[in-house]
Structure prediction request, 394 residues.
Amino acid sequence: MIGICILGATGSIGVSTLDVAKRHSDKYKVIALTANTNIDALFEQCLEHHPEYAVVVNEDQAVLFKQKIANSTVSDIKVLSGSKALETVSTLDNVDSVMAAIVGAAGLLPSLAAAKAGKTVLLANKEALVMSGDIFMKAVRDSGAKLLPIDSEHNAIFQCMPAGYIAGEDAKQARRILLTASGGPFRETPVEELHDVTVAQAVAHPKWDMGRKISVDSATMMNKGLELIEACLLFNMSPDAIQVVIHKQSIIHSMVDYVDGSVLAQMGNPDMRIPIAHAMAWPERFDSGVEPLNIFDVRQMDFEEPNLERFPCLRLAYEAINAGGIMPTVLNAANEVAVDEFLNERIKFTDIPVIIDQCMAEFSADSVDTLEIILKADKDAREQAYKIVEGIVH
Ligand code: NDP
Prediction:
């Protein structure tokens, strides 16, 4: 049996992971589930999957959760609280595999701890990798951990790599990655109307059902920017060798272009259980629960280059990766602040790239060789981004 810890179990990826794990309960045993505040959802998951551990990061909610568990039929579940507990459960001896599905920088330390402990890391939490870059990849190499991408695009690229490919290695004979993007809900909205888009419009993704933060990132295309940086790290490629392609049907999930002119693509219905099941079964395959792709329904596939004027966040991501050092950390931190403020309706949709741009301008790239430098850059960039927000709001 493979013991799995799901960081961010109550989120969109967490729920899909539990769905796949349940289909394969002969192979997977759920050891630990974590949430931040959503104790009702976590409680239902505990009743159904009976993990050994449940973590509630928020201390107030954890008190309530402990009472619920104590009075339930699953009172033997050990309940932990606080962010340090995430690292405790992601490194337990009987945990073989860790689904890193916390959203944002909050997922960095437990994901990195899992990598350092040599676990199989199923990486959805792209922000963790974008922030920590080479440090994360080195932790994977040094410990012998396995790193399997969950982001549908990166999972697709991984599937198109030569047999035996290991994340972080040179992708031999692959000359280009074609990183697909749906273009989000505002692919065709006149640019002058973007100023007034609402939160409800921004989180209504046309193809994928996802958490709120990544949905906004998809609408600004910062999601693709973060994925560009993620792809450079996972596949050891320079940004110049990665072409972002808008493919609105979201049937092809990305492609690899080889030196002989062959282009390999991975296709499927847009359902995250496909990459999740791929990574959980790897190097074999098992059922994901997703309907087979009806190829006759795919009448047309369109591909276009992204317009960096419409999507300035993508341009900023290119700038960050080209600058290197702490700049991807700064980009990510400023984006997290800006998206949160947009979701709280304090700023406009079009303020998001302005805040990130102004924030990045306050920092120089500097080199990154320790985790402390990253954590400081993350903290400083958040403070700077909040200052910029206050200037916009007042
Ligand atoms: P959701 O917002 O749906 O879920 C986030 C999860 O993280 C929840 O379990 C949440 O707990 C937990 N969480 C939030 N903040 C904290 C915190 N401070 N400390 C600990 N846990 C926290 O996000 P998604 O599932 O959509 O995305 C998760 C990650 O996967 C992101 O990095 C995203 O970019 C990536 N991803 C997602 C895809 C998708 O289809 N959704 C596709 C590809 C990548 P609680 O419920 O209690 O708030």
In short: Residues 8-14, 35-38, 57, 101-103, 106, 124-127, 151, 208, 210-214, 272 surround NDP (CB under 6 Å).
